[in-house]
Design brief:
Number of domains: 1
Largest sheet: 2 strands, parallel
Number of helices: 13
Bound molecules: zinc ion
Shape: globular
CATH topology: Rossmann fold
CATH architecture: 3-Layer(aba) Sandwich
Helix content: 40-55%
Strand content: 5-15%
CATH class: Alpha Beta
Length: about 300
């Protein structure tokens, strides 16, 4: 859980490199971006043609005619798992809940997680959708044992990341396409809203099932963060995928959606990205600081970062 541009894709990839774990990417978007827009899987082929996902559809839903219609699934998601639905989802008991779109969507989502675990031969499926509403949904899914990582990054660094030009890479044949860019105001409000939602989920599930990770702490000591997360889930393997303090060996993956770093495999170096401290404009810095002030102290970020 958390806001965008906070390192969730790389954390997802690193966790997926653990024995018995699999990276799923931003699963929320697999229906819309993966199936309807036919974007690329982390392995580089269009998601609809990827052999991994083809096996997952069979494992999850059986015959082709029994598969849910992605257009219908996207409608259920809009009706029941928006960020504003988070408190309501947290209050829900076991299925059926009587809330129609949720009762329709929940079994589809549960089957997808199980199918991924089965095809990958993994005990743990990592979903970096980030939205607290998707996290809250896990509480009602039958047969799923959920653990939550709330990943937070200094919102000034996030605002800067949204301003930078970045190639998108996941649209077929559009080699010069860029990821969308957003204003500091958009980023600052999104940061506040999604981190606020993630706080609700952590409070609901408690310390044994949820934890806060600061992106800055993760890149400073990646192995320590991975050990904490894997320890919480009770699935800490004997061997970690690190070849150096900051170097991790990533296998090719089938992440459905996420930052372009999901296309990286091999040795990847994690290092702090502090360019924003020099390059973010004073206006963006102030606007972000003022908007996000209510939560800055909570995550141990300084109020003043202007030079
Ligand atoms: Zn793939």
């Amino acid at each position: 859980m958390g806001w965008t541009r906070s390192g969730s894709t790389i954390l997802d990839s690193v966790l997926g490199a653990l024995e018995g774990w699999v990276s799923a990417g931003e699963l929320h978007y697999i229906w819309e971006r993966g199936l309807l827009e036919d974007r690329l899987c982390g392995c580089g082929v269009p998601l609809r043609e990827c052999p991994f996902w083809r096996d997952v559809w069979v494992a999850a839903y059986g015959r082709e005619e029994d598969r849910p219609d992605p257009r219908q699934v996207v409608i259920w998601q809009q009706q029941a798992v928006r960020t504003r639905h988070t408190p309501r989802l947290l209050r829900m008991g076991p299925l059926p809940t009587g809330w129609e779109p949720l009762d329709a969507y929940a079994p589809v989502a549960a089957a997808l997680y199980k199918g991924i675990g089965e095809v990958a031969g993994a005990e743990v499926v990592v979903d970096s959708s980030k939205r607290p509403s998707d996290a809250a949904l896990l509480g009602v899914l039958p047969g799923i044992d959920p653990y939550f990582v709330h990943l937070v990054r200094d919102p000034r660094a996030v605002a800067y990341s949204w301003q930078r030009r970045k190639a998108t890479l996941d649209l077929q044949g559009a080699t010069d396409a860029e990821m969308p860019r957003h204003s500091s105001l958009y980023s600052a409000f999104g940061w506040l809203e999604l981190n606020g939602g993630a706080e609700l989920v952590r409070r609901h599930f408690g310390r044994h099932r949820s934890m806060l990770v600061r992106y800055e702490d993760f890149v400073a000591a990646p192995a320590a963060t991975v050990e904490r997360v894997a320890g919480m889930a009770g699935e800490l393997p004997d061997k970690l995928p690190f070849t150096g303090t900051h170097t991790v060996t990533l296998q090719p993956n089938h992440m459905a959606g996420g930052n372009p770093t999901r296309f990286n495999a091999g040795d990847v170096t994690l290092k702090p990205d502090t360019e924003w401290t020099k390059r973010l404009s004073r206006g963006s810095n102030l606007l972000t600081t003022l908007t996000d002030a209510p939560l800055l102290r909570r995550y141990r970020y300084p109020l003043l970062t202007l030079r």
